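Title: Comparing notes on inverse folding

I've been comparing how different people in this forum approach sequence design from structure. To keep things fair, I'm posting one structure and asking everyone to reply with a full sequence. Here's the target:
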């Protein structure tokens, strides 16, 4: 069984994040917070990842959205947003991406993600579906959703 870990905010983790393509504001602001001691060393980040030996080879960010802001699901409820799912090139196609998505599903909450171009085949395999596009909600995004048992996509009332 591939182990998924909650990633801690420390210099070592932030250094490993540099290997990922989707490195940007989120990582830099975590680094600044650490430098300015706004967060403590080893406090929990929103990232989960998989190590191969000492190397972080796959990661995703996962965040729980409060029910109040749920415009996607029926009944209205807390849900997870998943982003920055990425497996380093040398380790792709070996089940690590799938393992991270399965880990997210284990919370038994609906999940929303915005897929990158070319990853639709993967998400389809993971059981995600396109949310009906609603301009005011989704703007330029093309969100995909995963529904646990007993949950439906919210109907759009025009
Ligand atoms: C997309 C990504 C997260 C998938 O993770 P991964 O570890 O490589 O994928 P897995 O090995 O867990 O694959 C799980 C299943 O999805 C399938 N799959 C993976 N990527 C796929 C894709 N782009 N299209 C269709 N199916 C795909 C696998 O064949 C596998 O199927 P199986 O369970 O029947 O064997 C990862 O490849 C990645 O980070 N890619 C970065 C670049 C990118 O976004 N590429 C998009 C594809 S070009």
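Reply #1:
Here's my take.
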């Amino acid at each position: 069984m591939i182990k998924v870990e909650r990633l801690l905010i420390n210099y070592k983790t932030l250094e490993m994040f540099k290997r990922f393509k989707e490195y940007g504001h989120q990582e830099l602001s975590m680094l600044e917070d650490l430098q300015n001691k706004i967060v403590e060393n080893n406090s929990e980040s929103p990232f989960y990842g998989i190590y191969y030996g000492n190397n972080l080879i796959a990661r995703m960010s996962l965040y729980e959205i409060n029910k109040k802001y749920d415009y996607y699901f029926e009944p209205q409820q807390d849900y997870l947003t998943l982003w920055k799912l990425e497996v380093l090139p040398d380790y792709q196609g070996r089940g690590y991406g799938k393992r991270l998505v399965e880990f997210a599903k284990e919370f038994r909450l609906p999940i929303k993600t915005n897929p990158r171009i070319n990853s639709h085949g993967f998400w389809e395999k993971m059981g995600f579906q396109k949310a009906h596009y609603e301009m005011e909600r989704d703007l330029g995004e093309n969100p995909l959703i995963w529904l646990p048992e007993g949950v439906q996509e919210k109907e759009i009332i025009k």
